[in-house]
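step=predict obj=Amino acid ABC transporter substrate-binding protein, PAAT family n=271
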Amino acid sequence: MRTKKPPAIISLNRVQVLLGFTLWLLAAYPAQARPLNIVTIDIPPFGMALADGQPHGIMYEISNRIAAQAGFASHNMLLPYARTVIELKHGRADFVLRFDNDALDQAAIKVAPIFPLRVIVLGAAGAQLHSLSDMHGLMIGVMRDGRFNDAFAADVAIGKYPISNYEQGLSMVVSGRLDGLIGSDLGIYTVAEGMGLTQEQFSQPLVLGEQYFWLFYSRRTADDVTLERLKKAVDELRKKQVFAEVVQRHARLTYLPKGFAPPSSNDSPPR
């Protein structure tokens, strides 16, 4: 004759099974229980505050669109360029959209490419910049913690002067204290337009190539489910031409009327 387990033991076993299942769900879906914490670089046009203090910008908008497409609520905060790496490193932020550097590679996972920007050097009016060798002996402004072009960075004959932002660099080029400025065309042109500057005040840009903005996710807070959902959301938005539309809209409303070159039309992921 089979003996029955006491009811108390049966209840205890059920509690253990339910507890184990609950813990498994929390481990499998940790990010779904909370909003994602996004940080956006506080550099026009990628992230900036309106007169009323409300944040906006290309990457601010795109970050929010990606989180929403992936089904996540989110909080988004503007931070200085270098500070975004620190926040991801310590797990106080989940993701950022930006160019990479060595410190960011250590702190975060490269999840998905967003779109490419041309990397240019903009010199003073009258400068003839056609190659890296034309910058030998010159002093070029470089954003602190910025990694824009490997060949440029490795060329020791080019002087590099650290700057805090594009506004500082452009002011120094116009005043003759710097010979040029390296950075993304979208960032440099937008800030130049906001300062009331036009293409006529600079050399023709030397294009060094393209570099992608990537979605970087903190290694401290990452989980496979969240990363896959974000990667899928990026692919879906790219197919809908959302990223290209945001960039082109911004360019039309800001720097294109001042004679600066249009942004890249390449919206395909890197191979």
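step=describe
The first helix runs from residue 7 to 28.
step=end
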